[in-house]
Amino acid sequence: MPKSCCAVGCSNNNVKDKKLSFHIFPMDPDRRTKWVNAVKRVEPDGSEWTPTHTTVLCGEHFLSGKNRF
């Protein structure tokens, strides 16, 4: 199944670049909140954006190459 990065302005997907890693949002509430805040995304109506169980973030958005901010 194709995966596309949820970061605003990022067009990375696993079809275009098979070597790029994709990370699902953590289930731990504290870590999940940190990821959501780091993505800085909002819904079109201005409300808070919430990732789904299939939302992913590509590895290019992690400083250390690991899935932690």
TrEMBL record:
Q: Which residues form the THAP-type domain?
A: 1-69
State the signal peptide span. none
- What are the GO MF terms of this UniProt record? DNA binding; zinc ion binding
Pfam family of the protein (one): THAP
Task: Write down the superkingdom of origin.
Answer: Eukaryota
What PANTHER family would the database entry show?
AGAP005574-PA, THAP-TYPE DOMAIN-CONTAINING PROTEIN
Q: Write down the InterPro entries for this protein, in alphabetical order.
A: THAP_domain_protein (IPR052224), THAP_Znf (IPR006612)
Could you tell me what this protein is called? THAP-type domain-containing protein
Q: Does the keyword DNA-binding apply?
A: yes
What are the entry keywords?
DNA-binding, Metal-binding, Zinc, Zinc-finger
Q: Does the keyword Metal-binding apply?
A: yes
